[in-house]
Write a structure and sequence with these properties.
By secondary structure, the protein is an alpha+beta fold. The chain has 16 helices and 18 strands. It has a 7-stranded antiparallel sheet with strand order 15-12-14-13-17-18-16, with helices on both faces. Strands 5-6-10-8-9 form a 5-stranded antiparallel sheet. Strand 8 and strand 9 form a beta hairpin. The longest helix is centred in the last third of the chain and has 21 residues. The site of flavin-adenine dinucleotide (FAD) has 37 residues, from strand 3, helix 5 and strand 10. Flavin-adenine dinucleotide (FAD) binds next to strand 3, helix 5 and strand 10.
């Protein structure tokens, strides 16, 4: 059932035939932009880049690819971090959603919007705000990632603890299947119990089951007040104790609770222009707290009262007095994320454990990592309100490429072993793609693998869609 690499001249002529003007790119210089992802770690030349401009064109394209067994990979903004959207070198057609980027509708009464998959997340958020609503998916890559990519990766971000993951925000989907059929599941109903909830199969499927062409998404009332604080603490344990109190003490208005260990703040101070010691002196752990609400309460007063009641945990802190100051506090986190690798490669992990175990997990994982690889520099931060932590590893400066590879393998194995001990997940956000595939398949329950392989076989029987991501290449049957 493996997809067969096609003859490229006839392939290109046939694909051009089903796409409108400018829909097919084949020149080497045009393909570069679609060959490398944000991390720079993954590179693969596409056979060609198809850019359908409507669901009908997408359907015709996939009908042809299915008939001819042409392997394809859907691509959004290329900010995914597990190497899934980049083509297998010279062997796959990239299907870019970039020309399907319209906002089809917004209804502030339904609190819903219907957006095409190629719409950049930030553009969709802006459109929601113009209707006095918010689309709450929020994270550093929002200026580049696209809605289809968010759906396909079940993206999380800063606001998950209040609004949920993308999965919780999708009301309906339009999907073009591997054989070109269009599944129109685009509805804005809040309650609908008619049979299987098919959209859930596609959410988080990383392009392996269908091409999302549009999504109906939940919106929320736009907060009129947002307050941000940065606090310094003695330990991760204190940060988690603070979280438990904040969940109750902030009247359920908590929208973000982001942990950064001292090393992360130092990265921003070293690299970020004009970023000084944020709290006057250093602390082992920091938390960015954000609360938001409508107009009927005094939100700043609530946050200040809450902070006044947790002085046993909080060593020091600042509450932003303006939105601009609040945004500047967030930059301590964003700059750290961008600069942590000093422009070179670093190991990314995005693990999760039960919230109640997160502090112990961090202590144990850092201990095991330090014992196994004292030369590795850990950078630790995360959405700890969701039990999700990024425990990344930066190699020592000047280390040879092969030694870096070995360091990453060893470090990841140490961290994942501790995740297993805590009953956690090796991927809380980024997905499996190709990068985490081995670790995923080593751990998956055999019944779950059987079900996953059955779903793949049923929906994409020729395995032309994102072959070799999540499940093994060609047929998942090989792994059973
Ligand atoms: C600085 C930075 C911060 C980040 N922070 C977070 C974070 O906080 N939380 C989080 O969850 N992620 C985060 N990410 C990861 C990434 O941004 C998300 O995974 C995002 O949802 C990917 O969207 P994209 O459009 O870039 O998808 P791409 O990278 O283009 O693709 C990702 C996957 O989705 C598939 N895909 C894309 N479009 C479609 C479609 N229309 N139909 C079917 N499959 C499709 C691809 O084949 C691939 O498997 C971050 C990334 C960066 C660079």
């Amino acid at each position: 059932m493996n997809a067969v690499p096609p003859n490229s001249a006839s392939l290109i002529a046939a694909l051009a035939g089903v796409l409108s003007d400018g829909g097919l790119l084949t020149e080497a210089e045009d393909l570069i932009r679609y060959s490398r992802d944000w991390s720079g770690d993954h590179f693969g030349r596409p056979l060609a880049v198809a850019r359908p401009s409507s669901v009908e064109e997408m359907s015709a394209l996939m009908r042809h690819c299915h008939a001819e067994r042409i392997p394809v990979v859907p691509q959004g903004g290329l900010t995914g971090l597990v190497g899934a959207a980049v083509a297998a070198d010279g062997n796959e057609v990239v299907v870019s959603l970039e020309r399907m980027n319209r906002i089809r509708s917004i209804s502030p009464i339904d609190f819903a919007m219907v957006v095409e998959a190629g719409c950049i997340l930030e553009d969709a958020k802006r459109a929601a705000e113009e209707s006095d609503c918010i689309l709450p998916i929020t994270f550093g890559a929002q200026g580049s990632c696209r809605i289809g990519g968010n759906v396909a990766t079940n993206a999380g971000g800063f606001n998950v603890l209040r609004y949920g993951m993308t999965r919780d925000l999708v009301l309906g989907l339009e999907v073009v299947l591997a054989d070109g059929r269009i599944w129109n599941g685009l509805k804005v109903l809040r309650k609908d119990n008619r049979g299987y909830d098919l959209k859930q199969v596609f959410i988080g499927s990383e392009g392996t089951l269908g091409i999302v062409t549009a999504a109906a998404l939940k919106l929320f009332p736009r907060p009129t007040q947002i307050e941000t604080a940065l606090v310094g603490l003695r330990s991760v344990e204190d940060a988690m104790a603070l979280y438990a109190r904040a969940r109750r003490g902030c009247s359920d208005l908590l929208t973000a609770f982001e942990l950064i260990l001292r090393g992360g703040i130092e990265i921003t101070m070293r690299e970020g222009k004009d970023f000084h010691e944020p709290l006057g002196k250093p602390y082992p752990a920091y938390v960015l707290i954000e609360v938001s609400s409508g107009g009927l309460i005094d939100l700043k007063d609530m946050l200040l009262s809450f902070l006044a009641g947790v002085e046993d945990l909080v060593e020091d802190g600042i509450v932003a007095s303006t939105r601009a100051q609040g945004e500047r506090l967030w930059l301590y986190r964003e700059i750290m994320v961008e600069r942590q690798g000093r422009g070179g490669r670093y190991l990314r992990t995005d693990v999760s454990v039960p919230i109640s175990k997160l502090a112990d997990f961090v202590t144990d994982a850092l201990f095991e990592l330090g014992r196994a690889r004292p030369d590795a520099l850990p950078v630790t931060y995360g959405h700890v309100g969701d039990g999700n932590i990024h425990l990344n590893v930066v190699p020592p400066e000047g280390m040879a490429a092969e030694a870096i590879e070995h360091l990453f393998e060893e470090a990841e194995a140490e961290i994942f072993a501790v995740v297993d001990r805590y009953g956690g997940s090796i991927s809380a956000e980024h997905g499996i793609g190709r990068v985490k595939q081995r670790a995923f398949l080593d751990r998956i329950d055999p019944v779950a693998l059987d079900l996953a392989a059955g779903i793949k076989d049923a929906i994409d029987p020729r395995h032309i869609l994102s072959n070799g991501r999540i499940l093994a290449s060609a047929s998942a049957l090989d792994y059973r």
